[in-house]
Amino acid sequence: MPLEDAISQSERCNRCGYCQPPCPVFRATGVESSCGRGRIQLVKAAAEGRASFTKDYEPILFECLLCRACVEACAPRAETDLIVAIARNEWFKKWGRNPATDVLFRELLGDRSKLEMAASLAFKGIDWGLAKAAQVTGLLRLQPRASVALDWLGSPPKELLTKRLRRMRLSASGTKRRVGYFVSCGVNMLSPDAGEATVRLLSALGCEVVPLPNACCGLPAYVYGDWEAAEQHILDAARVYREAGPLDAVVTDCGSCSSHLRHVAELIGLEDAQLDLVHTKTKDLAEFVSEIARRPTARVDAQVTYHDPCHLSRHQDLTTPPRELLSAVEGVDFREMKEADWCCGGAGSYGIEHAEISKVILGRKMGWLEETGANVLTTACPACITQLGYGTRRHELPVRVGHISEILARAYGADLPPLERQEAEARATEAVEA
Ligand code: SF4
Ligand code: SF4
């Protein structure tokens, strides 16, 4: 989508200001350039040549969460997130490309084995106490973002999801459907418990699960403005879909992946027949389970609430299926959270890149979470899980954070330990490591 599209989108803005109150970043900063109206007018000024598109545009563009709360409030539907994304692409071409972004977007995210190797090495370093040593010796002061990242991450998983999947039996007897599982980078590296629960849930529902050897869906490259890399990632994903043979659906438990797989071609103006398969087969987990599931068979005793990932609620309009599925589980006391669709401030690496704004946004969410009295906070996106987990640690809330699949898998009789036992074991491991 070229810059002219950003200009024509921005023509829709009548400057009414209704996008100010729902914008999490504006609520944190109080600055006009943080809200939809401000960002749109500044991009428009640059696109029309009334302002020079300098490096100073970086915070205006990159402090946006792309959460679409402003779009929802906007009567003429000026799509701030699209305008900002187009401008980021221009910014990337002018200022953003460098050896580090090339390694990240074109090497690591384009090749799952390289990404896994890099993540495993980083996690081993944390396990061996190298991070703590760097903190004690003051080395991390030289790299403040690394220090923030370590706090945000907490204890890294012991094992990547793909390694666990190699040990699992993925074909239930008498399977009715053959389902591809799109392995999200985030679930693989940050939330393997969620991924394992997803796969076990699908098996318990009578699906033969085929984990796909996919790399990234392309969202990180797209939001950073590297659309060439994003295009390569989605074409690679399309090839993987094709090579997997006949599939009833490709399911992912990452709201960002499902959204991006469905929309990326349109977003970056890519016309390629190979992508039809990606568009028609991709399903979000809750959406798919709602279509095929019977009533759950097992009790799960928990007070549960749910956080809407922006990529599910506002980018795909999927808010009902997760709530209906959770509420149908015997023993689950579902407690709706106020502003459940208020962005958590995670947005990929936003919590690291814009830590101070992100903490303010997260703090509001934690207040509403506490008010529910829930002991389990569920969501459907690995970045949200990590961010919300960071929030509960930071605000000292005794709430387990996980994916809806972790409740649903148990409710459908999948072979997993009870939630409380898994939680107790995780806490014991953390205590030993501390
Ligand atoms: S709500 Fe829409 S029309 Fe009103 S100022 Fe914001 S972007 Fe412009
Ligand atoms: S997309 Fe979200 S963060 Fe960006 S301007 Fe709109 S409401 Fe604010």
What is the CATH domain class of the largest domain? Alpha Beta
Beta-strand residue fraction: 5-15%
The profile of the biggest β sheet is: 4 strands, parallel
Q: Could you tell me the mean pLDDT?
A: 89
Could you list the spans in which at least 5 consecutive residues all have pLDDT below 50? none
Ligand list: iron/sulfur cluster
Annotation field: number of helices? 25
Strand order of the largest sheet: 2-1-3-4
Structural class computed from helices and strand pairing? alpha/beta
Radius of gyration: 21 Å
CATH topology of the largest domain: Rossmann fold
Give an overview of the whole structure.
With 434 residues, the protein is an alpha/beta fold. Helices cover 56% and strands 8% of the residues. It is built from 25 helices and 8 strands. It is globular and about 65 Å long. The mean pLDDT is 89. Bound molecules: iron/sulfur cluster (2 copies).
What key attributes describe this structure?
434 residues, alpha/beta, Fumarate Reductase Iron-sulfur Protein, Chain B, domain 2, Rossmann fold, 4 domains, 4-stranded parallel beta sheet, 25 helices, 8 strands, globular, binds iron/sulfur cluster
